[in-house]
Design goal:
It contains 4 helices and 8 strands; from the N terminus they run βαβββαββββαα. It is of the alpha/beta class. Helix 2 (73-89) packs across helix 3. The longest helix is centred in the last third of the chain and has 21 residues, at 159-179.
Length: 207
């Protein structure tokens, strides 16, 4: 009797960040942004499953047995958001876990309540809330939330289309998070600052 192994048709996916930094700078790079620690992201329970999920109707969750995440989805989302923020505001973002001695300007705590493909509307929904705090003092700097829908182009039978739309949704989310983070004031070079000081101190006298 000849037993033949069934072919494994499983496909594995990861979420990906936006275009590389140099491609989104129009002229010169922006000034260095703040250093940010991104806490462990809270996710809905259905996202902890390694199979990619879609939502049918209001309540049914369908897991595609042959389409899986190639890594834990929480750290994957954190890495993508960190890279997006690095590009959007020229910041340095450290996803959890970060070194205990890390010197940083802000902590960002993010909860994602929904992040899934909707079968009926052919969209990705992402619903999230986040806090921006000062480390140490825990002073609240900002509290915001976002609800966004990204269109799935090309249909849902191709799971690459779903993942691409999820990437688009993360770009929108990271952009909204970036808007809630205070920007660093540009540091004036020493020579330019000295010249400005001299100019302000000098007065023109007319005789």
């Amino acid at each position: 009797m000849n037993f033949k192994a069934k072919p494994d048709n499983t496909k594995f996916y990861v979420l990906a960040p936006m275009v590389p930094i140099p491609l989104i700078w129009h002229e010169t790079p922006p000034p260095p942004g703040p250093t940010i620690a991104l806490g462990r992201i809270e996710l809905p329970g259905y996202m902890e499953n390694p199979y990619i999920a879609t939502k049918i109707g209001m309540s049914e969750i369908y897991y595609a047995q042959n389409y899986r995440w190639a890594e834990l989805i929480g750290p994957n989302i954190a890495r993508v958001l960190a890279e997006n923020l690095n590009a959007q505001i020229n910041s340095t973002v450290y996803p959890a876990p970060w070194p205990s001695e890390l010197k940083r300007d802000y902590d960002v705590l993010l909860s994602i309540y929904d992040f899934i493909a909707l079968e009926e509307s052919k969209e990705i929904v992402i619903n999230a809330r986040w806090l921006v705090r000062e480390p140490g003092t825990k002073k609240l700097i900002a509290s915001a939330e976002a609800l966004h829908f990204s269109q799935i182009h090309g249909g849902m039978k191709n799971y690459n289309n779903i993942v691409m739309a999820m990437n688009d949704a993360l770009v929108v989310l990271s952009d909204k998070i970036a808007d809630s983070i205070p920007k660093k004031e540009a540091v004036m070079p020493a020579e330019e600052e000295m010249e400005k000081s001299q100019d302000s101190g000098s007065q023109e006298v007319t005789i």
